[in-house]
Amino acid sequence: MNTPTRHPYLDHPGPIAFAHRGGAADGLENTVAQFRRAVEAGYRYIETDVHATADGQLVAFHDATLDRVTDGAGRIADLPWQDVRHARVSGVEPVPLFEELLETFPEVRWNVDMKAEPTLGPLLDLIARTGAWDRVCVGSFSEARVARAQRLAGPRLATSYGTRGVLGLRLRSWGLPATLRPSAVAAQVPESQSGIPVVDRRFVRAAHARGLHVHVWTVNEPHSMHRLLDLGVDGIMTDHIDTLRKVLQDRGVWV
To answer: Where is the GP-PDE domain (predicted)?
Structure first.
């Protein structure tokens, strides 16, 4: 992997191992307890998601509602933080504020998926207030949302492509014309879509030619991890943090 570093966030020797939601396979996704387990396992990059409560508090949580993974219920956007804070993931662990995560794990770099438009302002305000510009990369399925974040924050903010940006890069890899946002530092893509591999050698080559990292989610099988690393991807996001660590250790690139 010889991709030039376009932002301090990406300053890391070797492929980046991302703990997806802290390691969602353990059943305590997006909780302080699970993030701590990932950090104790040696992870320094963690993927998480953010939603804004009705009173503008930014919580680390994937779903729009509490119902699937907690003993609470309701849309986070409709609930005040006072209500959300009492919900327990798997009936055990509280839902954390993203600010709490920045404070609790000062050595960690965070890949943050903005799940809805109301997260944009509070997230940029928090990054600015805590001086966490080098510790956070912001992404979203919405290219428009992440492009707005980039315009507001400028080059201090590391961003990845949204769906439209990834499609443009895919077209470029086939030699077709497409407009690409020049400010992105990474293309973060699924391992496959509808059973068809998304990442191939042409895609990786096209990204690297533009100085972009390629980070692939969510990869849980060792053979897929090896295939992607052989293609030269720059990072892998996994629910199975012990599996990815072993793969990277076996290849001599675990840092």
So the answer is: 15-248
Q: What is the pLDDT of residue 4?
A: 58
What is the chain's Cα-based Rg? 17
How far is CA 129 from each of CA 111, 133, 185, rounded to the nearest angstrom?
A: 18, 10, 22
- Domains of the chain from N-terminus onward: 17-250 (3.20.20.190)
Q: Give per-residue pLDDT as tens, 104-143.
A: 999 999 999 999 999 999 999 999 999 999 999 999 999 9
Mean pLDDT computed over 209-224: 97
Angle at 48 between CA 197 and CA 140, to 5 degrees: 60
HEC string for 149-213: HHHHHHHHCEEECCHHHHHHHHHHHCCCCCCCCCCCCEEEEECEECCEECCCHHHHHHHHHCCCE
- The catalytic residue among 20, 51, 213, 240 is 20
CA distance 174 to 54: 44
Query: What pLDDT, on the 0 to 100 scale, is given for residue 1?
Result: 47
> For 229-253, what is the mean pLDDT?
98
Task: Please say if the pLDDT value at position 9 is more than 90.
Answer: yes
User: Are 48 and 112 a contacting pair, CB within 8 Å?
Assistant: yes
Q: How far apart are CA 31 and CA 92, in angstroms?
A: 10
State yes or no: is 7 an active-site residue: no
Burial grade of 107 (CB within 10 A; 0-12, 13-18, 19 or more) = exposed
Spatial distance between the Cα atoms of 131 and 150, rounded to a whole number of angstroms: 16
State pTM to two decimals: 0.96
